[in-house]
Each structure stands twice: as C-alpha cells, then as structure tokens.
Amino acid sequence: MARLPRLTLADQPHHIVQRGNNRETIFVDSADHEMMLGLLGENAVRHGVAIHAYVQMENHLHLLATPSTAEALPQWIQAVGRRYVRYFNDRHARTGTLWEGRYKSTLIQPERYLLACMVYMDLNPVRAGLVAEARDYPWSSYGHYAGLRHDKLLTPHPLYWALGNTPFAREAAYAELVRAGISEGDQVLLTDGVLRGWAVGDRQFLESLQRTTERRVRKARPGRPRNPSGSTP
User: Fold this and answer.
1) In contact, 126 and 133? CB cutoff 8 Å
2) For the chain, where are the alpha helices, taking DSSP H only?
3) CA separation for the pair 89, 149 (Å, rounded)
4) Fewer CB atoms near the end CB (10 Å): N or C, the chain?
5) Strands 104-107, 14-19: pairing kind
6) What CATH number did the domain enclosing 55 receive?
7) What pLDDT score does 227 carry?
8) pLDDT along the chain (233 residues), means of 10
9) Sheet with 104-107, side-by-side order of all strands
10) Where's the Transposase IS200-like domain (predicted)?
C-alpha cells in the first residue's frame, strides 16, 4: 500500500517521531542529547516553529510543535536531521544513514489531545522501564512544566497556561496530570496516529479537517463502501 503524504498545517500542533535506522542508537551520551536540543532550538527559530514538548530516548525522539507555515515543519526537521547526522557520524566515527526513513507526524486536536500527548511523551521513559517517575528522566520537557528547571527551548501552549493562574498552580496541575497518566485508549490512539499519519481528534475536528484537504485524515471504516442507492456495489 502506498504511504500517505504527510499532512501539515500552519498554526496546528503536530506530534512528530523520528527513529534511528533499524532502531539503532541515536543518542550515545549527554553530549549527543545536548547537540540535538541545540539544533532543534536554533532551527525552530530560523523556520518559525514553536516547540511545546519533547522526549529524547536512546533510539528515537518525540516532538510536539506548531509550525507557523505548512512548509516550516518539514524544513525544520530536515535541517536538524541533516546537521545531526553529520555531527553524529563525525563524532562516533561512523558512516551512512542514521534515520529510519522519513520522520512520522500527525496533527493533534489541541483542546482534546494536546495535554494528553504531552503526558504520553513524558511517560515514555517510564513505560520503557528507564525510570520510575517522569521527573527522574533528564531528556524530556517534563522538568520545565513541573517547575524543576527552565528550558528556553520550549514555547508553552496556551492550554498549559490555562492550567492555573500562577506558575506554581500550573506546575502542580501538570505534575498531577502526569501522575494520573492517560487511558489505554488514548495511548493507542496517539501511537497509531503518529505512526500511521492519521489525525488525532474527535469526529467534529476530523470532519472539519477533512474539508481542508483531499488527503484522508483518518482510517477508513471497515467494509465496502455503499453506493447512493444504499446497496453494496
């Protein structure tokens, strides 16, 4: 089956995943993590992308970001990817590709799924058994939103600001969201959405989104389509 073209829209949050080729390591040590964060921030400013959240695992990374134009997101990811590969290959005396094909991405309905996506990302190291709690993992945006450190890379989404009237209230509310976790259904939806390219949102959001593009935004319902007379063709 032919893969779907990516759906990228200006001023909409996108969940992005980039994996190492054959799931190989893309971050060997803290210097690699820091280099990637620097490249993400530098090129986000250059291309007009607001980074809301991230988590860097050993062999992949997740990003949650809003581009200012439809072209900004792919330009940003491609610029970061090219420079990081050159850096990584030079530093670790290797050659060849680093990434597992093209990056994967999907649109997120902010009101329903943006905070859930942030929680999903922050719990990735916990699900992988790397740490007991999200606060213990240094290479995610959790520390910023829970008040443990300031991360200049990030642009908090308005929905985060709406969690409370003071920094302490917002930090406590977000930490509680992560402590509570997300449902298994939302976890599956967010995973399938980004890996398969289906937009993540409720029916009204998906129907509205579909009117803006000829590219399908959600998985087709099972079964054969019906013709206008109501009988199966």
Assistant:
1) yes
2) 30-47, 72-91, 115-122, 124-127, 142-145, 158-161, 167-180, 184-196, 203-210
3) 31
4) N
5) antiparallel
6) 3.30.70.1290
7) 47
8) 72 96 96 98 97 98 97 96 97 94 93 97 97 97 97 97 97 98 95 91 90 77 46 35
9) 49-56, 60-67, 14-19, 104-107
10) 9-124
User: Does 120 fall in a domain?
Assistant: yes
Tell me the backbone φ, ψ of residue 101, rounded to 5 degrees.
65, -155
Cβ atoms of 211 and 149 within 8 Å: the answer is no
- Whether 230 is covered by a domain: the verdict is no
Q: Is residue 188 part of a domain?
A: yes
On whether the CB atoms of residues 13 and 66 are closer than 8 A, the answer is yes
Cα-Cα-Cα-Cα torsion 126, 118, 39, 95, nearest 10 degrees, comes to 50
Token pair in block for residue 201: 């949102």
* Residue showing tokens 């799924």: 113
| Token reading at 51 | 């980074």
Name which of 134, 154, 109 is nearest 14 in CA terms. Answer: 109
Number of domains in the chain: 1
